[in-house]
Amino acid sequence: MAAQSLQIPTSASKVLNHRRNFSSATPVTYLSVGVPSRRSKTLTLRAVLSEKSSPTAPPIATGIGCFTKSPDGYLYCDDVRVQEVIEAVDRSPFYLYSKAQITRNFEAYRESLQGLRSIIGYAIKANNNLKILEHLRELGSGAVLVSGNELRLAIRAGFDPTRCIFNGNGKLLEDLVLAAKEGVFVNIDSEFDLENIVAAARLTGKVVRVLLRINPDVDPQVHPYVATGNKNSKFGIQNEKLQWFLDAIRSYQPDIKLVGAHCHLGSTITKVDIFRDAAILMVDYIDQIRSQGFELEYLNIGGGLGIDYYHAGAVLPSPMDLINTVRELVHSRDLNLIIEPGRSIIANTCCFVNRVTGVKSNGTKNFIVVDGSMAELIRPSLYGAYQHIELVSPPPLMLKFLPSMLLVLCVSLRTS
Ligand SMILES: *Cc1c(COP(=O)(O)O)cnc(C)c1O
Fold first, then answer.
1. Under a CB-based contact definition with an 8 Å cutoff, are residues 117 and 297 in contact?
2. Ligand 1 within 6 A of 342 CB?
3. What are the pLDDT tens digits along the chain (416 aa)?
4. Which atom of ligand 1 is nearest to the CA of 146?
5. I need a labelling partner for 46 at 20 to 30 A (CA). Which of 144, 181, 272, 322 fits?
6. Residue 100 CB–ligand 1 contact under 6 Å
7. Does the beta carbon of 341 lie inside 6 Å of ligand 1?
């Protein structure tokens, strides 16, 4: 990731700062702009705003999160005109992030967890930009990993390994060895996964702290591609085999130590009752497991909180709503709560800025061709996801001369 010197042709009140560590004494808007470059590196643009207010009219809040449309038709990211960023960046398309919004999203989780012993593990697969990972780590986040490379990335970003959780049904022995050395939590997903975890513990001479991934079989009421906590899921142990797993784990002590139970229901969940239903079942499992002498300390309820994709002002549950539905349960069993938010930390902080290449017609339908593609934004073509599109600048009078810029509000989710 290369820091790049970029000129923002803008008012005197905006100062570019190319230093690696800029002081945050003045309000800072951080713009990390990921541009696919020839050497597939990412350019980083940092813009620092002075305390003087911008001469452009302050945006009226008609958007979500950090993105707002002002009455003059310009789109803002916090108080920076996206158009100005476009002019400063010599490539297209690019991703634009609001550091302030990432902070706000994380703080909303932290606030909701006041009074509980907890770990917030950011699910790296939601967006693995190193600068974003470093920022979340600085805020106190842990990390949720679903591959060996994500584990390596988390280590590189400096996450505290004891606040990291290694998930997945295909964890490789070499990756588990690294996880064991680093001391991250590891989820047991299957019989063979358990064997590999034990092998990694023995190879490294470390005690691996493990959680059992259980499928509470609660319907998350989401697209089937992003439902992961039901009985037919490819993730987690077969619940009927719980006793087999407990006996096996006991026989492998002290190489591994069972410390908790995990579930992840799916993504884009918009009803917090679903989390509560799952937590009730999970606490039942924890009671059962504890009754056999295991000292479970952690309940991990996964991630999956939805966001307002439609920008229609829908009132969606907040992190506080989510935690409130499970708070008493967690207290009643004296548990540490682990949560694994991905999308709800990053989605509304990011846009994918495209340029219109041209307009064409097949006789019955007009197409606006942009320079972004499913390589950068896979969700619509993967599972027909709705993607909100906004113009960055006011449209010219005639449709024929379409505005040169289109903005696509973007979540760069790779898998689910
Ligand atoms: C994807 C994933 C998450 C995060 O899901 P979001 O919908 O992005 O919050 C959390 N935990 C696990 C195990 C995951 O695979």
1. no
2. yes
3. 333 333 333 333 332 233 333 333 332 333 444 444 443 333 334 433 323 334 443 334 344 579 999 999 999 999 999 999 999 998 999 999 999 999 999 999 999 999 999 999 999 999 999 999 999 999 999 999 999 999 999 999 999 999 999 999 999 999 999 999 999 999 999 999 999 999 999 999 999 999 999 998 777 777 777 777 777 888 889 999 999 999 999 999 999 999 999 999 888 888 889 999 999 999 999 999 999 999 999 999 999 998 888 888 778 899 999 999 999 999 999 999 999 999 999 999 999 999 999 999 999 999 999 999 999 999 889 888 888 999 999 987 644 444 444 555 433 333 33
4. 15
5. 144
6. no
7. yes
Our answer on whether the CB atom of 236 is closer than 6 Å to any ligand 1 atom is no
To the nearest 10°, report the CA torsion of 92, 395, 99, 128. -40
Distance 8 CA to ligand 1 centre (A): 36
Q: CA 111, CA 321: separation in Å to the nearest integer?
A: 11
The domains found in the chain, sorted by start residue, are 64-97+349-408 (2.40.37.10), 99-347 (3.20.20.10)
Indicate the helix (H) or strand (E) that contains 49: strand 47-49
Helical pair 242-252 and 191-204, crossing angle rounded to 10 deg: 10
- Listed in sequence order, the residues at least 6 apart from 100 whose beta carbon sits closer than 8 Å to its beta carbon are 28, 29, 30, 66, 78
| Ligand 1: nearest atom to the Cα of 213 | 13
Q: Residue 76: phi, psi to the nearest 5?
A: -115, 145
d(CA 266, CA 220): 6
Please answer whether residues 160 and 142 qualify as being in contact, where contact means their C-beta atoms are separated by less than 8 angstroms.
yes
b/e for 358-385, b at 16 or more Cβ within 10 A?
eeeeeeeeeeeebebeeebbebeebeeb
Q: Please indicate whether residue 213, judged by its CB atom, sits closer than 6 Å to ligand 1.
A: no
Q: How far is the CA of 341 from the centre of ligand 1 (A)?
A: 6
